[in-house]
């Protein structure tokens, strides 16, 4: 049992889809605090520490008084001590009610102010669109035409960003621990999150609403980069073109990564939400209506652009369309990649 607990983290890592490098660790050691990489995180941490100090003072005060009374009113060595008659002490009761009330009001007001700040994105915030689906995050940047990334959020330091989020299927929850932010992502409605990053670095992005089999692999990365590098870094991340010396199949592997395909399709024959790519090309599949189809270039292309047109028997129509997200060259590369998975 202990052994399996010890090896569990490594096993979980190995089980991650190969095209998703996973998420960076929350912090360097399990004992250290989470990194704080946004203005909101720093403000909330200050409030949280204030809360802990208050609790600490109250705890020490109460336990201290208890200990003192235990000592002071302990049973005397001989005979019974007479209990003094109990009356009330108005002044004392007022003090022990007023002091905590004063601090509760401070906590409420402080929390409310931070909450209001967090609930109201500044009007000049930069827009990003986030779509959750089983089991990846699609992140689109309106400022770069046609740029849609999977599981990678790029953020400049010191610029407010507004994420408008929705879901294609079930409720997910977008969680940025280093920014102390979390919000449900709900089908049929938009939810909004905003933040201003303060520290460059690589931070985790997670789904924190159980959304099905692969919920735990619905993870990503937040890349916080200096403002002056942001445009170049984002343009590079968005670019999806075959390199001069790059074989088509390797380019196809990059397209698979970009599309987040591996959250549903394996390359080792394991069946997940969709058929495995292993040995797929050339296979004859039986469709849900009983007819058969040979997996060729046309079928793969159709399945990428119109995934629900011909569903293989035993699978459910869950795949989003990639029409408008992948161009012809990218689709050709994807086909070459699938062909190579023998
Ligand atoms: Cu999406 Cu859990």
From TrEMBL:
Membrane topology type: Multi-pass membrane protein
CDD domains on file: CuRO_HCO_II_like_2
Cofactor binding, note field: Binds a copper A center.
Cellular localisation: Cell membrane; Membrane
Cofactor: Cu cation
Main location per the UniProt record: membrane
Entry-linked PROSITE patterns: COX2, COX2_CUA, CYTC
Keywords: Copper, Electron transport, Heme, Iron, Membrane, Metal-binding, Respiratory chain, Translocase, Transmembrane, Transmembrane helix, Transport
Enzyme Commission number(s): 7.1.1.9
Cytochrome oxidase subunit II copper A binding domain boundaries: 123-236
Pfam families the UniProt entry points to: COX2 (PF00116), COX2_TM (PF02790), Cytochrom_C (PF00034)
All copies of domain Cytochrome c, residue ranges: 247-342
Transmembrane segments: 49-71, 92-111
Reactions catalysed: 4 Fe(II)-[cytochrome c] + O2 + 8 H(+)(in) = 4 Fe(III)-[cytochrome c] + 2 H2O + 4 H(+)(out)
Broadest EC class assigned to this enzyme: translocase
PANTHER family (UniProt xref): CYTOCHROME C OXIDASE SUBUNIT 2 (PTHR22888:SF9), CYTOCHROME C OXIDASE, SUBUNIT II (PTHR22888)
NCBIfam families listed in its UniProt record: CoxB
Family affiliation: Belongs to the cytochrome c oxidase subunit 2 family.
Function: Subunits I and II form the functional core of the enzyme complex. Electrons originating in cytochrome c are transferred via heme a and Cu(A) to the binuclear center formed by heme a3 and Cu(B).
Protein's name according to its UniProt entry: Cytochrome c oxidase subunit 2
Species assigned in the record: Nannocystis radixulma
Gene: coxB
